[in-house]
Design brief:
By secondary structure, the protein is α+β, with helices and mostly antiparallel strands. It is 20% helix and 21% strand. The protein has two helices and three strands. Strands 1-3-2 form a three-stranded antiparallel sheet, covered by helices on one side. The radius of gyration is 15 Å and the shape is globular. The model has no long low-confidence stretch (mean pLDDT 93).
Amino acid sequence: MVTDTGGGIPEENLGKVFNPFFTTKPLGKGTGLGLSIVYGIIKMHRGQIFVKSQMGKGTIFTITLPIKLPKQEEI
């Protein structure tokens, strides 16, 4: 779990935070790739990432990863 006590993410943006190139920063101040890269890495490891945020209180990212990947069937 990763938390902060920042300004929070507006509800209308929560569904977009993992989209490549989505940013609320001014032009030239960010690419909007950070969270989409994190999402890709977690998915490659068969994990999940969830976000919860409250305006004025902060944001919580919860990451789950499997302890052990299931064995792949032999072909």
